[in-house]
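Q: what sequence does this backbone want?
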């Protein structure tokens, strides 16, 4: 089911092909549909949301907002064990993210020149949680906890309704446990448009967070490019994992790691890079065996076609391949994995050793599972508290500070041909100089 490739036998073109992501759907078609949805919601507001919900989700809603009664019913539908699992995950994510809040900074860069950086939470954040073939209460936790730590005063969550007209109960319970009480039953590109521009019911957000399908991604790109829209968290593509394994890795574990990511959707990708041909063959066999036992076999049969095992000369070469690929999730199932960590340059999140399966990061270890995909890990970080705050710089100069540093600004302004810039400084310097001369003569 998974092709095995010998890295040293591949040409440069073949190597690029071996690390290529699955082709995305027609971006032009998706962008056109997303643009239509965004523009319609912007013009028609709630009416468009009701219409699109009936069209895309096959449910006719009477209200977009989740009621107190629906929250209460959601709590009753979860078992104590399920709620306890959510509470444990929230506690761990809270514990890890609590230390990420940046501290104010103040520096005297020159005598009488004080520069500061102060931190402010984003006022209104829109959190999008999909609920397609697999509802994602874990996504609520990963978005809502850092938003709460950052101190964002207005936290709005949108999630698609089920056929019965209700939001997923686990999503609602997770939201409530994270302190979110404003939830709307809206999904897809229409939810992004509603959060970006606001409707009669849904408030406008300053920034939108959360995963979604290609239409959601296209809508996020559209509204982020519009000054009247809303900023968005990060670019994203289908989910992916790369496992780096040595000859002593457990083939059963490696196969399960690959399948755990490949089951997300048909465009998910799972890649093994190993120094052992024997392990590659064992993993390929194990993948086939385990796939037969899993409920999402139809998805796996498609996604595994874009997956592969790459055999390299040694683990150092495997790390080079990992940095080229820049995986969303990178698992190091090798002896003494921590010794290789300093050589990892590009990855969304790293899992060290055989006892650190990727689903622990998805759910409850404490790190955030909203991560850069499709190679964006070369330049982007995973979601953190920093994404929910903004830094504002402050400068304050005393008269002496301006006299000391002002001439530098004047010189640089004239170098750039911006005499109005220079004038804003020299006029003040002239006043200070006249004051100084008057004081000296009295």
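A:
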């Amino acid at each position: 089911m998974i092709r095995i490739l010998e890295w040293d036998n591949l040409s440069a073109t073949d190597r690029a092909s071996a690390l290529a992501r699955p082709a995305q759907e027609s971006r032009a078609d998706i962008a056109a549909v997303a643009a239509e949805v965004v523009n319609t919601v912007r013009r028609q507001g709630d009416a468009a949301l009701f219409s699109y919900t009936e069209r895309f989700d096959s449910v006719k809603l009477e209200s977009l907002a989740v009621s107190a009664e629906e929250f209460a019913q959601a709590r009753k539908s979860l078992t104590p064990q399920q709620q306890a699992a959510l509470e444990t995950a929230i506690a761990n994510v809270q514990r890890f993210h609590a230390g990420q809040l940046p501290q104010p900074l103040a520096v005297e860069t020159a005598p009488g020149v004080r520069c500061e950086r102060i931190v402010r939470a984003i006022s209104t954040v829109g959190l999008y949680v999909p609920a397609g073939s697999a509802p994602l209460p874990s996504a609520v936790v990963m978005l809502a906890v850092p938003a709460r730590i950052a101190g964002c005063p207005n936290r709005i969550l949108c999630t698609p309704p089920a056929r019965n007209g209700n939001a997923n109960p686990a999503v609602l319970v997770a939201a409530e446990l994270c302190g979110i009480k404003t939830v709307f039953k809206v999904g897809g590109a229409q939810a992004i448009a509603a959060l970006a521009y606001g409707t009669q019911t849904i408030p406008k957000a300053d920034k939108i967070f959360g995963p979604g399908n290609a239409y959601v991604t296209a809508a996020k790109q559209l509204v982020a490019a519009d000054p009247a829209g809303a900023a968005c968290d990060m670019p994203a593509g289908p989910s992916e994992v790369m496992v780096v394994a040595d000859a002593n890795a457990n083939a059963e574990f490696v196969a399960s790691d690959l399948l755990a990511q490949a089951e997300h959707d048909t465009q998910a990708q799972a890649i093994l890079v190993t120094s052992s041909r024997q392990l590659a063959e064992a993993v390929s066999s194990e993948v086939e065996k385990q796939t037969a036992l899993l409920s999402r076999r139809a998805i796996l049969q498609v996604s595994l076609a874009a997956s592969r095992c790459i055999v390299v000369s040694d683990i150092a070469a495997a790390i080079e391949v990992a940095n080229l690929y820049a995986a969303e999730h990178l698992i190091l199932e090798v002896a003494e994995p921590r010794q290789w960590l300093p050589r990892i340059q590009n990855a969304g999140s790293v899992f060290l050793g055989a006892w650190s399966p990727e689903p622990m990061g998805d759910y409850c270890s404490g790190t955030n599972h909203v991560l850069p995909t499709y190679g964006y890990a070369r330049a982007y970080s995973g979601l953190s508290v920093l994404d929910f705050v903004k830094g504002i710089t402050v400068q304050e100069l005393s008269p002496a500070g301006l006299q000391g540093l002002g001439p530098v600004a004047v010189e640089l302004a004239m170098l750039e041909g911006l005499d109005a810039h220079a004038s804003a400084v020299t006029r003040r310097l002239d006043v200070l100089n006249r004051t100084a001369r008057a004081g000296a003569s009295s």
